[in-house]
């Protein structure tokens, strides 16, 4: 297959943020009265926005999910990300390689809020490669697993979705890429915070990588 553009998820694909973000979320849910284990928190929330799970959170805590609670979550999350975030192994090199080969036709299409995405890409030295082509599901009519963010990213690089390769590490994200009409490659290393190879394939991934260094060869 020949691809003319690559559309990247951010969390878990470009930056190793999921254990940090979910660690903050788990602690705050415990503080709010939901005695949730870290592994269960990861299983329930990976690939999803906190607000999309508001009903579940409110049912377990007995409290409304307020703007003030979300603001505290974002502040605590961002502080830890700024202190601890690193790139996914070999992701920066892979991004630079495909950016050069495709003439810059790459984009970042995340389900996270824009502030988080832009902060993270800057922190790992990738912001300039995605400048002007960063998309947040928070700014779309619907976020992942809806295809909106990938459709917007494909339009921005001027390539039909059917000629785009999407890189995702969660079932929710794979579903979004498939719904957009793109080919999706899954990323599933042995570390926690990613969908299993079996789950990614079941969601529609064309193939699954265990190392981001594999990506340039797919072109």
Q: Could you please describe the fold and organization of this structure?
A:
Helix 8 (171-180) runs parallel beside helix 9. This protein has a 6-stranded parallel beta sheet with strand order 3-2-1-4-5-6, sandwiched between helices. The mean pLDDT is 95. The chain is of the alpha/beta class and 219 residues long. The chain has helices spanning 18-31, 38-45, 54-61, 67-84, 91-101, 114-123, 148-157, 171-180, 197-203, and strands spanning 5-8, 106-110, 134-136, 164-168, 183-187, 207-209. It has 9 helices and 6 strands. It is globular. Helices cover 44% and strands 11% of the residues.
Please summarize what this structure is.
This protein is an alpha/beta fold and 219 residues long. 44% of the residues lie in helices and 11% in strands. The protein has a 6-stranded parallel beta sheet, sandwiched between helices.
Features:
single chain, 219 residues, alpha/beta, six-stranded parallel β-sheet, 9 helices, globular
Report the mean per-residue pLDDT as an integer: 95
Unreliable spans are none
Percentage of residues in strands = 5-15%
Count of DSSP-assigned helices: 9
Strands of the largest sheet, in order across it? Answer: 3-2-1-4-5-6
Specify the structural class. alpha/beta
Calculate Rg over CA atoms. 17 Å
Form type: globular
Major pleated sheet: 6 strands, parallel
**Terminal residue distance:** 8 Å
Specify the helix fraction band.
Answer: 40-55%
User: SSE string, helix = H, strand = E?
Assistant: EHHHHHEHEHEHEHE
Number of strands: 6
């Amino acid at each position: 297959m020949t691809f003319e553009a690559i559309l990247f998820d951010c969390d878990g694909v470009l930056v190793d943020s999921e254990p940090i973000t979910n660690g903050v979320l788990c602690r705050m849910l415990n503080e709010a009265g939901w005695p949730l284990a870290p592994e269960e928190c990861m299983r329930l929330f990976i690939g999803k926005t906190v607000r999309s799970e508001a009903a579940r959170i409110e049912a377990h805590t007995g409290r409304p999910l307020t703007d003030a609670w979300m603001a505290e979550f974002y502040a605590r999350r961002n502080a830890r990300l700024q202190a601890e975030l690193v790139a996914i192994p070999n992701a920066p090199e892979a991004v630079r390689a495909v950016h050069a080969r495709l003439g810059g036709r790459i984009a970042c299409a995340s389900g996270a809020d824009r502030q988080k995405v832009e902060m993270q890409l800057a922190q790992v030295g990738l912001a300039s490669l995605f400048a002007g082509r960063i998309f947040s599901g928070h700014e779309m009519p619907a976020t992942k697993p809806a295809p909106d963010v990938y459709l917007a990213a494909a339009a921005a690089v001027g390539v039909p979705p059917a000629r785009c390769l999407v890189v995702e590490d969660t079932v929710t994200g794979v579903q979004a890429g498939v719904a957009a009409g793109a080919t999706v490659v899954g990323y599933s290393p042995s570390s926690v915070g990613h969908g299993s190879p079996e789950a990614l394939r079941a969601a529609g991934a064309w193939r699954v990588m265990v190392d981001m260094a594999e990506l340039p060869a797919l072109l």
